Amino acid sequence: MIAGAARQGGVLLAVKVRPFVRRRALVCPALQCVARKAFLLRCSAGLRPFFADFPEPSNMDSLQVWLAIAGAVLVCAVLAYNSWMTRRNTPRQPKIEPTVADAALPRLDAAPKPAGTAAAAEGDGVPVSEEELCRPQQQPPITALIDAVVPIMLDGRVLPGEALLAEVPTTRRVGSKPLLVEGQNANSGAWEFPAAGQRYRALRMAVQLANRTGALTDIEFSEFVAIAQRLADAVRGAPDLPDMRAQVEHARELDEFARRCDAQLNFTVRARRAVWSVGFVRQCAAGLGFVGAPVPNQMVLPADGGKAALLTLSFDRRAALSDDPQQATVREVTLGLDVPQVEQRLQPFARLCEQAQALAQGLEGELCDEAGQPLAPEFFAGIAQELDVLYQMLEASGLPAGSAQARRLFS
Fold first, then answer.
1. Which range (1-5, 60-64, 323-327, 386-390) has the least confidence?
2. For residues 95 and 364, what is the distance between their CA atoms, to the nearest angstrom?
3. 262-409 has which CATH code?
4. Considering only CA atoms, which of 238, 247, 54, 233 is closest in space to residue 145?
5. 136-254, superfamily in CATH?
6. Going by C-beta distance under 8 Å and a sequence separation of 6 or more, which residues neighbour residue 350?
7. Which among 20, 104, 199, 366 is least buried, having the fewest CB atoms inside 10 angstroms?
């Protein structure tokens, strides 16, 4: 019976021993204690195989050590990742104080306001001198190539500039198209915007036929004719109104030509490692010859002694207008070329490629297109050939790139 109980793992042993213990417990308590000890010994002997696979205390200590090492490595990895992300998202700062950099940064200011106008006096905050009143306003010349022109004859009369300025329309646009007024100087015979102190023997008014917003519409032409008629009545002149159908058709043809010849190139430099601050971007761009622009998030590379912009650099407007621009992050900048606005002799595309590569190197960024694809060397060669064809088309049409007429048409 005892051997059988051992083979059964001690369970059967308990069944056989308990009756024995209960019978002897009434006879002698000492025998009960002996039987209990024997029961515990045999149970432990029967259960010992179940604990044979458990590790020894020394093995448990080794496992704890390995777990501690793994936990330390994981914590170090998390700390290193957080440090890397913090460094990556912290914008790079310029090497000098931002205030000093911005104060020393030259600017390409906006075009001067017309002399002798209320806008000029209010914008500058100072009275307009008599010399400024007598100075002709700077405006693009009227040309029948891109304008619908209404001549106004004065029948041999000569009008002073002050009288004409009082009757010139205050609006400078008809819909989305610029409106221009010129008078023929009685002394020089040149056409210019009327100025005080001068005398004029003829007038003409024009509206631009097309620009990047589209062609002149019937409604815009009708509004233009009404304004021209009011001016002619005010100066007691005789207007020579053009045919609306012919002018609108001409506007559509000009707009179609402009669509075929219009080209704007944009290269993007994206941050490869750390992002940039506004001051860091401006500092790198200023080192390449860029100057400030009236728009806060733009800089320009001047041409022709600062009279025009060769290239335009732009970045996130929200970063430029933030309360703390040096902490605002800039992840990419765009370098643009408006092809019809720049003369071919300045080699604008070659300058664009040169400045884009230099800017990418200075910012430690990656040069790519607007879709985010890296630019290959053969990509530049293909664009250069297409631009040569475009320049030839503009030249043949009488609107060479960079001319006053081309800048008006492609605006």
1. 1-5
2. 15
3. 3.30.1400.10
4. 247
5. ZipA, C-terminal FtsZ-binding domain (3.30.1400.10)
6. 384
7. 104
- Domain ranges, ordered by start, for the chain: 2-51, 136-254, 262-409
The lowest-confidence range among 11-25, 134-148, 282-296 is 11-25
The strand pair at 332-338 and 238-239 is best described as unpaired
- Could you give the 3-state DSSP secondary structure of residue 185? strand
147-153 and 199-208 as β-strands: parallel, antiparallel, unpaired? antiparallel
Please count the other Cβ atoms lying within 10 Å of the Cβ belonging to residue 161. Answer: 22
Residue 32: CB atoms within 10 A of its CB come to 15
Start-to-end C-alpha separation, the chain: 111
Phi, psi of 304 (to 5 degrees): 55, 45
The 8-class DSSP code of residue 32 comes to H
Tens-digit pLDDT profile for residues 63-77: 777 888 888 888 888
> Tokens standing for 158?
């000569």
Provide the pLDDT for residue 91.
62
pLDDT of res. 29: 58
Q: Which of 27-36, 239-248, 251-260 has the lowest mean pLDDT?
A: 27-36
Residue 146 CA, chain-centre distance (Å), reads: 32
Rounded to whole angstroms, the Cα distance separating 147 from 86 reads 57
- Alpha helix stretches (DSSP H) within 262-325: 278-287, 317-320
* CA 12 – CA 293 distance, rounded (Å): 99
- For residue 44, what pLDDT is reported? 54
- Are both 136-254 and 262-409 of the same fold? yes
Structure tokens at 235: 């100066």
- Picking from 131, 127, 147, 151, the residue whose alpha carbon sits closest to that of residue 139 is 147
d(CA 321, CA 331): 15
